[in-house]
Amino acid sequence: MAFQPKQKEFKSKNGNQYVFQTIPNSKYLEMMDDSVAANGNPLVSKLYAAVLEHIVVQPSGLTVDDFDSLKELQEVCEAALTFQSGE
Fold first, then answer.
1. Is 1's pLDDT higher than 90?
2. Residue 56: beta bridge partners?
3. Is 7 in a helix, a strand, or coil?
4. Which of 8, 77, 83, 85 could form an SS bridge with 48, CB 3.0 to 4.6 Å?
5. Model confidence over 53-75: pLDDT tens digits?
6. How far is CA 46 from CA 3, 14, 52, 61, in A?
7. Which H/E stretch holds residue 81?
């Protein structure tokens, strides 16, 4: 079965609109591997940057510094990761 990306619209608690798009499992696993320190702890700065680059497709080109609040950054990235994992 070939990979078919899926999309989902997401509205943050602040009312901002985003569109998520799934990535192939191999890219997701690579992204997760790249976001873990040698001791096994997550590197959130790398993970969130990768989520914004690869899973959040609208608005395009977002970076972690484009968010006014850390709370919204966390909300969007965690929702995108949940969507990617199919939960």
1. no
2. 20
3. strand
4. 77
5. 999 999 999 999 999 999 999 99
6. 25, 24, 10, 15
7. helix 70-84
